[in-house]
Amino acid sequence: xxxxxxxxxxxxxxxxxxxxxxxxxxxxxxxxxxxxxxxxxxxxxxxxxxxxxxxxxxxxxxxxxxxxxxxxxxxxxxxxxxxxxxxxxxxxxxxxxxxxxxxxxxxxxxxxxxxxxxxxxxxxxxxxxxxxxxxxxxxxxxxxxxxxxxxxxxxxxxxxxxxxxxxxxxxxxxxxxxxxxxxxxxxxxxxxxxxxxxxxxxxxxxxxxxxxxxxxxxxxxxxxxxxxxxxxxxxxxxxxxxxxxxxxxxxxxxxxxxxxxxxxxxxxxxxxxxxxxxxxxxxxxxxxxxxxxxxxxxxxxxxxxxxxxxxxxxxxxxxxxxxxxxxxxxxxxxxxxxxxxxxxxxxxxxxxxxxxxxxxxxxxxxxxxxxxxxxxxxxxxxxxxxxxxxxxxxxxxxxxxxxxxxxxxxxxxxxxxxxxxxxxxxxxxxxxxxxxxxxxxxxxxxxxxxxxxxxxxxxxxxxxxxxxxxxxxxxxxxxxxxxxxxxxxxxxxxxxxxxxxxxxxxxxxxxxxxxxxxxxxxxxxxxxxxxxxxxxxxxxxxxxxxxxxxxxxxxxxxxxxxxxxxxxxxxxxxxxxxxxxxxxxxxxxxxxxxxxxxxxxxxxxxxxxxxxxxxxxxxxxxxxxxxxxxxxxxxxxxxxxxxxxxxxxxxxxxxx
Length: 656
Ligand code: SF4
Ligand code: MSK
Hints:
The protein is of the alpha/beta class. The chain contains 28 helices and 16 strands.
């Protein structure tokens, strides 16, 4: 049994809890993934169910070259080709992902406006400097105006960007000039966020856009509306409201749960309510109440991206990433799992029913049958938060005694926002990316990779994440991370400065030791991938590495992706000029033309392109090869060779 479970995760505590779940008779995602194999036609994008004449399946013919006559017949009832069907499916994934991120951004903007108007007590403007910076970015007058007046204008402008019908998103201006011009030239500069998503749904309806290239271009436009629009605005406004992250010590893994305390896990993506739960859980009356129920205190931890948000700003520990959510409940030690939106398995409720855990839903957009619903009311958020914390405390005496908390937990340093990297590298008085660019130019750092994204039950939990990241840093590639990859890296001990000496190549380790940073920098949650775009733009602006993101020696990856949001993120990275490799599975292989367009033609169009490689070592080397290609184009490849040779080797070379 133990050996069988070891094929499911690289993490010891996770394996222990998969075993406990089996003993307790609890069904988890690991079991379901084994029992139910993915549909081979749907998984390659060859199934369409966009109308009542379908579903239509257009799988590739097995084993032999298809004749033109056969290909002619391989269509849906309406005549849609395999290319149209694969492209439609792909961009509907982008629409789903962009909608999720951008609706998150809308929720933040609505709260932001309420705060500015004085209608959301308990919240305030925490980062005034960022407020002023965003005001400048959006063209909002500052003068002698109060913060609330400025914030009101910002909130209105941001909300207006969702329903805008013409022109282009204001925040596109944050991209390098050359990139903006390219988007305009290609006709992919997004107009309004909602408009681009709706247009995908329209074009993919039966009988509308039948040209896969035209469909994929609209996918690019909607993904850009996500990355440079909805996600970026979510991050900016959250920073103003809750503070821009700065380096902070935290811990990660299932071992952060406490045996003798009331354990509350906050899970999902939006930090709006969880910020208040952090405050409520620290109130003396709540701690007293917990003690009166026999607990030693209240232990708050996070799961998935809500975890990343409250870790980055408060140091709240992370209990796990996507595939660990059911297992946290299997410990038998969780009084409440509080969920907001996105990445919440419906099965948390059925798992919770096997123990004493209460699942508390908080968003009107995300209900789960059987769960307790305590709706987040931003007009009295602390009241909602207190009610939630109280419900958890009162559940403590109901623990069933069948408790096992694995003892593995690791330290991590998180909080590497773009602003922090700027200060860390350049100093308070001359914040800049110059030292990073210089170290790339002199070859100590080979390049930068953004490794992000989910877990996927079709592949061993965390294995591809950690194998890829270790291979990259070993080869002197500085890694920046978000989402569930960041949590995996924390669990593997890669987010501490000491990891540089242990795992990084000589050049990268030297830089990390000098600056005092880990070789893998945690930049936040899924919407915070926008921070990576801003960091890449800052590298371009600092000079010496070309004049567009596509010139930089950088690459991106999501080795264990599963969500539609990951596809949207990948597409906006590609559209921003980044070579982006995905693992596990690829959703368009049912059409060679569509796949070739994404994997080859997009590079000509956008300077960035998609790639698919499930083997994490090979994927890391594809990224390294791309980074080296860019170094060569910039004429800095020789510098790295000089760094790699020690004095004796250089003497030998000179003698030749
Ligand atoms: Fe079939 Fe066309 Fe309907 Fe899709 S839209 S289900 S391909 S008939
Ligand atoms: S939580 S989208 S599983 S990264 Fe952002 Fe993790 Fe992927 Fe959800």
